[in-house]
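Request: Give me one sample?
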Amino acid sequence: MPESFLKGIIQQALREDLGKKGDITVASLFFSNPIVSARLIAKGSGIICGTQLFTRVFQFLSGKFHFHFFVREGEKVKPGQLVAEVCGPVKEMLLGERTALNFLQHLSGIATLTSCFVQVAGSRIKILDTRKTTPGLRLLEKYAVRIGGGFNHRCGLFDLILIKDNHITALSLERNVSREKAINLSVQLARKKFGYRYPVEVEVNSFRQALIAYQAGADIIMFDNTRPETVKKFARIIRKKEKRIILEWSGGVTLQNLKKIRRLPLDWVSVGRLTHSAAALDFSLKIAG
């Protein structure tokens, strides 16, 4: 990730915590600023992610910090495990502690949940994230998905043409045509505007819609909350065709129903909860007595 982006995220997070007055607790207690050591301890089981951002927070506050990590980015940790030793000035240690831990816990939680979905999905199906991310933190959260073994669907509205249900409804109203004709027209308009510069994906919820999107030239068909039988039927039809496309499943995916979804003839499964519902993986930073 760009250095300017990381710096901006850290500045914003620290500004939110320190306000205009700074840490009034530290200011009232410490007159000197001795160097102290602290231990970073994992309090849960999961995948660690965000170690670079963790260190950058403290280095942003002072150039006197030193770190020794006992685990690498993307490795598993367990409760009570010593993750790292941190050495630096006590004032800045206390100033940056919560901000650094917040980043580490949030990203590790996403990586951990992603890893669980990847394991259940197996090697044939790719687990993808969505745009259901925390505003301002998308690049970080999508990075955490990759650390957990998942893949990024798209980073924004600018890198893939995804024609969703609302696009089709709005286009059918504007052109006064049926939804089926709007699906076909939407793919044609996208190709006319951009050619094959970007992949074209169409969200569908029926066999007929999927077939229209395929015949119109879509590269990816996203089955959103669709009957499994519909996916199977469509896959059987296109298997006989020369043109290969990507089949994606979306909507309400959990670890429980993924066990059934993975049996379908799919390439991708997109999971919004990777970023919008991942529980933080808890860590503590304790100054050595």
